[in-house]
Amino acid sequence: MWFRKKKPIDFEAKVAAFVDERIDAMGAYLCPRCDEEHVALELAFRWPDVATVTGIASPEQPDDEITIAGKTFVRGVLRVPIHDSKNVFQIGIWARRDGTQSGRLANQVRVLAPLFDAAVTIIPGEPGMRPSFDLVDHPLAQAQRDGVTEAVAAEWRAREAHFAEIEPMAAPFEATLAEHGWELLGAAEIGKPACTDSIEVGHLVKVYIRLVTVSDAGEPALINAGWWLTIDHAANGRLSGRLNSVPKIPTTISTGTRMWPRRDQIYQRELEPGR
Known about the structure:
By secondary structure, the protein is an alpha+beta fold. The protein has helices at about 10-25, 50-55, 140-145, 150-160, 175-180, and strands at about 30, 35-40, 45, 65-70, 70-80, 90-95, 100-105, 120-125, 130-135, 180-185, 205-215, 220-235, 240-245, 260, 265-270.
């Protein structure tokens, strides 16, 4: 009896075909951070932030509508159209119901202007589909109505793909709660004298950061945190550094986030480890 020899399985070809299928389905973009092509995966939250803060969240997939501390949360999708594209920038996110078709977003998104507690209209989905959330009064409401360019969507996705990595050098800026979800406080604002030591590249400096986050009750909360920066730029009277602490609360920043502190916002300095 003759047996036909089976052709070896080309696993690399199968993986490549799978990746191609994912790119076709989700779209792809050229990352402005690393110049590589990434699959445009959807940002998504498994639980509302309050569940993470209170320890209720678990690895199990929750229902699409849940109750926490007497409040009802519904899972839906926030979409931003992309010009001249069949794809959209979308986030799987939760909202706290205030009424049948009104609510407030219940997650702090890391890549856009702070979205936690932003008012939304809840638009029911087709049968079997999750609802959509339309922003009511927020800096991104117009972008959601009019759409954004591929370049803007690629930058948003790049921030997520490289979140918690060292943020590259950019033009100096002063962060605000409304635009960034955090701000640096002056040493005098926290009752401490500003550091007068010389500061060089490689030094660790301590700053006070005010953050927008979520309380145990699921409401917006402001906290102040004394965290460390590693200075990696000191020229022309400007300092810049990357966050060297690890935020353990829902927020828009992470280890590696770039900041531009003024001298009056630095209240402590340490030499780099080993010096």
